## 1
Amino acid sequence: MARALPRPHRDDLRIAVGGLLGGVLLWALGVHPRIAGDSLVLWHAPWAPLLPLTVTAACEPLRRIRPRLGLPIGTAALVLDTVTLGSIVTIVLYTDLIYAAVLYGNPAAARRIPRITGMLTVGGAVVPAALWRDPQALLIGVGVGVVAFGPAATGALVRNHRDAAEAARLRAEQTALLAETDRIQAVTSERARMARELHDMVANHLSAIAIHSTAALSIDDPGTSTQALTVIRENSVAGLAEMRRLIGILRDGSGDHEPAASPTLGGLASLVDSARANGLDAALDAGHGEVPVPVGLAAYRIVQESLTNALKHAARGRVQVVLRQRDAALDIRVTSPYRPGDIPRAPGSGSGLAGMRERVALLGGAFEAGPDGPLWTVYASLPLTEGVTA
């Protein structure tokens, strides 16, 4: 299917019509650059200048859409104009064709035309002067320079400025796109971090509340109900405190609440005691020294989430938390009784394991979780590299 030719620009049509009318007006007034007795005038018909004028004007609509076609036709028309009385408008229109061919043509033409017109300018000045030995012959080169090289050089200069402006615009758009991408990634990363914090801080308490409220509703025993309600109240208060801490983290420090300190490995004993209070048979075996703050926070959250999962899913039996510090890493292992097919005591979202895996990945460590015979094992190895960031 043939592709339709692009429509000429309206300004180019105006240039063509205006040039043609102006040339006809000068022809009617008898204004010509040459006189009838000039030796260069070979075509003496009075209407002869109108032919190259019309052809050159007809090339103007092609100056943007087909510059490689318009310039050769205009050149032929200009050569024809030199053997007639001529028209100043034809010369002016031709200079515009050269300018447009450099500005709107392909890059090869934009480089080639100024070189060719430059050589023609030099040749037009040197060769006639050398042959005729007349300094006046240098004016031929000046004329060629004004008609051809000047417009070509101007077009090249304007094109270079235009290309530089376009390149600057593209760089600005690329910079803005990269900045927006970085902003989206930063927001996504921060939302993921806050989601992990919210899940780790609140899920443990809400799981205990769900389990003990179920026990209080299913067992018709005042003592059991009182004990369950006591645990529910303790976890509600603790969960509220954790939520306040999270709100403190989200504040910018200008409000009434300052962010509380992040949990550390020193709080693991209290964490295990809280798990025992919730009815979990948990034991802690910790052997570690000072660790970087991000490692300590990640280890605390991994143990906290593991105890929460054990409270919801583990079978009856001992839940063992073991921490061992090596030269370059802190190893965490949490084991709990496991029986396939058991119904969870509280619903889960499945995001706990994903959150632990993300925490370990951010620190460049290793993480495994899954059944190991009669036990469910959570294992994480966190590198103790200097400058680790959470």
## 2
Amino acid sequence: MNYFVIGDVHGCYHTFKKMITKHWNKENEVLIQLGDIIDRGKNSPKMVQLARHLCADFPDRVIFLKGNHEFEIIDHELNQPNHNWLRQCGDETLRQYEAEKRDCRSDVDWMRERPLFWENDHLFVSHAGISEQAANPFNEEDGYGILWNRSPLKNIHKLQIIGHTPCNEPVHDEHSHSWNIDTGAAYSGYLTGVKINPNGEIIEFIKEETDSRDKS
């Protein structure tokens, strides 16, 4: 079984749907999305609804990880208000939920259950990676932790696939044996996916131009 890892979606529902419709081989690939499916783009509620349906329909083939934007909305719902999130993009996301007449709290409960990472013997997938400086990389509030880190990554003797920091194109770091595949889909860029075999070897990169209906 190969792996199809997709970067930060940020509300780009139509773009994500095109990518998986055209490129995901459901019979031979596990689909892994590395977090930040909400905020920035125009269709966060639709994107969460699709993610939930995929997880329900393919429980052994689909994994959505938690990103820092999921952490932010969770924090807002449990400990209101999260002014930082509201100011940056949360107000718009909540307006989208109101327009869709969709229950935000139900989606937040689902987000709380998302894992922080996925791994096998050769591959480690997370939102922001294992930092050289993190005392506890799995502390969700640590700035060097797996949800927030922007510092150099540690070589953990596995291929690391991350997002979190938007780039113009996928970026490889030889020292940490990692790829950043966040290509700023919500910023008039494109969504990136990467296909990987069970031994942690890159098969190919997939590029899907951002659908105009998703752009913020």
